[in-house]
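Subject: sequence -> structure tokens, single chain

Hey, anyone have a minute? Need the predicted structure for the following. Not urgent.
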Amino acid sequence: MNNEKRTISELLISLENEKENSIDKLENNTSLTNEQVKQLSEYFEVDTEDIEELDYKTYGLINIDIGLETYVLAEDYEDAEKAARECLKDFFDEMPYGFSIWVLCDNSEISYSAMEDLIKYEANEVIKELVDMEGLIDDCISSDGVGHQLALYDSEELKINDMYLYRTD
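Reply:
Had a minute. Here:
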């Protein structure tokens, strides 16, 4: 009986902590927890009031202002990589010629000179058809990393405990 009470007691404590965390999120109208704000505040050496979640997301990631700087925040690396892949897909759809010719050639059966001609004549739809987009995305992430896609300011990935931050301005 004592084990059951302890288990129920532990469950109640866990539920109470979860409820407090949810209330914190609702009161602050944020998806950042107080613990995350505290960790960011300590790392960047700013007051917690200087950390503000913005009302939009980038590829599903939280946008935050820390002082005068803006970051996207991923709560784990998988979310960051997923966002980077979506970013690359969008970029490829809009401007396939924006990638290095060598990367385009490595992910297609097209020669360098033929790819140059396709780019020169702005044959974007042909390029999209001939290039293996998933292979291209894999190459970009393995060579440049996630930060290159998400951190528009400096291409750097910043890891703070379990959070990944990418500066955008």
